Amino acid sequence: MNISMSWLKKYVPIDCDIKTYIHEMTMSGTNVESYEELGAEINNVVVGKITSIQPHPNADRLVITMVDVGTETLQIVTGATNISEGDIVPVALHGSTLADGVKIKKGKLRGIESNGMLCSVEELGFKKGEILDAPEDGIYIFKENIPLGSDIKPYFGLDDTVVEYEITSNRSDCYNVLGVAREAAATFKKPFLYPKIKVTENDENVQDYV
After folding, report:
1. How high is the pLDDT of residue 4?
2. Per-residue CA distances from 88 to 34, 39, 53, 113, 146 (Å)
3. Per-residue pLDDT band at 133 (split at 50, 70, 90)
4. CA gap 80, 87 in Å, rounded
5. CA–CA–CA angle 28, 29, 35 (5° rounding)
6. What pLDDT digit, counting tens, does each position of 5-43 carry?
7. pLDDT band at 206 (very low <50, low <70, confident <90, very high)
8. CA nearest neighbour of 164 among 53, 58, 25
9. Range list of β-strands (E), 56-98
10. Of 14, 52, 90, 129, which sits most exposed with the smallest number of CB within 10 A?
11. What is the C-alpha to C-alpha distance for residues 119 and 125, in angstroms, rounded to an integer?
12. In sequence order, what are the residues at sequence separation of 6 or more whose Cβ sits closer than 8 angstroms to the Cβ of residue 168?
């Protein structure tokens, strides 16, 4: 069974590092099979805003964009066709690393300097269809204004760790996140935070539905 640490922390305030967490949980009887740090390979990919788009003088299928990444404005050459001025997009800076381990460096594309790359969700490690508002092909465009220059990981849930537990048949109470959270609370002597349940009532009579 897989549970993300961000989900677990909604019910128990775990504040130790992941290796300590795994060791203590396993020693207390809740065996951990493995864990995955999401977005671990991604580095130096930030939020940027396209401020201008100009035709490439030497290539019909490329354009030259100016992108504000908070601390500076970069010139980036791209072949993307779904972008417009004002769009807020993921930007891989010079020296960054993408999900597949590819390192991005500044260089020239058809004679024009390019200082990074605009990213699709596939380049951030997602498969098509996993991010519902992502285009079928092309650069991902954020639907909200978010701070320029900030790390993209929190906006895609890539700053999280997913833990895989081996739950034995005699511990069916741990076949859910609340059960594991109770075990974690007991193991680390932390309070268990019960989920808040809100019931919205109306003036209808239940007998009308019987």
Report:
1. 96
2. 36, 20, 13, 21, 8
3. confident
4. 12
5. 95
6. 999 999 999 999 999 999 999 999 899 999 999 999 999
7. confident
8. 25
9. 63-68, 73-78, 88-97
10. 129
11. 11
12. 31
